[in-house]
Design brief:
The chain is an alpha/beta fold. Helix content is about 40%, strand content about 10%. It has eleven helices and six strands. Strands 2-3-1-4-5-6 form a six-stranded parallel sheet, sandwiched between helices. Helix 2 runs antiparallel to helix 3. The longest helix is centred in the N-terminal third of the chain and has 15 residues. The two termini are about 30 Å apart. Pfam families: Sulfotransfer_3 (PF13469). Keywords: Transferase. InterPro entries: P-loop_NTPase (IPR027417), TPST-like (IPR026634).
């Protein structure tokens, strides 16, 4: 089994870009969000007491079954270092640490108001293509969409709560928080920090010719551009398309920026 690590965090915060960069390293495999976290949760549920046969399943068996899920899924992957991407991994930190004692989790983050802005920008750009993000519902307003995605079970709200749990939890020494702004303005420093964190030798990346295309997936999800990665990394300033009252609702949510609220032992780059 190769070394396994995880990419998690908030949506629209650079996880696809980080994966695209890691793919340049021939030792590494990384990609957009995959199905393993969902399968992981489904297996845990099926092995719980709600299954009448769970009396035959103890924790040792559960651990072997869950570990076997990764072994089987990546059995044909020749990479020496695998990064599995899903926003839910921050919520599974205690289980991940039990299964993979050497695994690390990289959480990509971005100011919540700009995450919401980025999603809304995609929706308004693809005005004739209702998105799976909102159940392919063509109606609603910027307010109803924002309220939906920041809810506790929403596209942004749920990963945000998982992120906070991971950042303040007992396994935070396994977590590296990567800010979108750092990744896009100083990718070289960011990648050095990533390799140092996971204990891998540094690799000389190319930051002006990035190749990663999942157009077909995005179009099937009704959200073209959802995982688009620009060929050249750079910071692109713009005005928000959110109304001021909505934008200002989230300006204090970036707890990782405030030295007074960052828990001891948490690494932020």
């Amino acid at each position: 089994m190769p070394a396994i690590h995880f990419i998690s965090g908030l949506p629209r915060s650079g996880s696809t870009l980080l994966a695209a960069l890691l793919r340049q390293n021939p030792r590494c495999h990384a990609g957009m969000s995959g199905p393993l976290a969902g399968l992981f949760g489904a297996l845990l549920g099926e092995m719980s007491a709600r299954n009448e046969f769970s009396v035959f399943i103890d924790d040792a068996k559960r651990e072997r079954v869950l570990h076997g899920l990764f072994d089987s899924f990546y059995a044909d992957n020749p990479a020496e270092v695998i990064f599995d991407t899903n926003r839910a991994w921050c919520g599974w930190m205690p289980a991940v640490s039990r299964l993979f004692p050497d695994a690390k989790v990289i959480a990509c983050v971005r100011d919540v108001q700009w995450v919401v802005d980025s999603i809304e920008r995609l929706i308004q750009r693809n005005v004739f293509t209702p998105s799976s993000i909102f159940g392919f519902n063509p109606g609603g307003t910027v307010y109803t969409r924002a309220n939906g995605i920041v809810a506790q079970d929403g596209l942004v709200g749920a990963p945000y709560d998982m992120l906070k749990q991971a950042c303040f939890g007992a396994q935070r020494d396994r977590l590296l928080v990567v800010q979108y702004e750092t990744l896009t303005t100083d990718p070289e420093r960011t990648m050095r920090a990533v390799y140092d964190f996971i204990g891998e030798p540094a690799f000389e990346h190319t930051f002006d010719d990035i190749d990663y295309d999942v157009t077909e997936f995005d179009e099937r999800a009704g959200t073209p551009g959802l995982h688009t990665v620009h060929r050249k990394i750079g910071s692109r300033s713009r005005e928000t398309i959110l109304p001021p009252d909505l934008f200002n609702r989230f300006v204090n949510d970036a707890f990782w920026r405030n030295p007074e609220t960052v828990p001891e032992g948490l690494r932020v780059v």
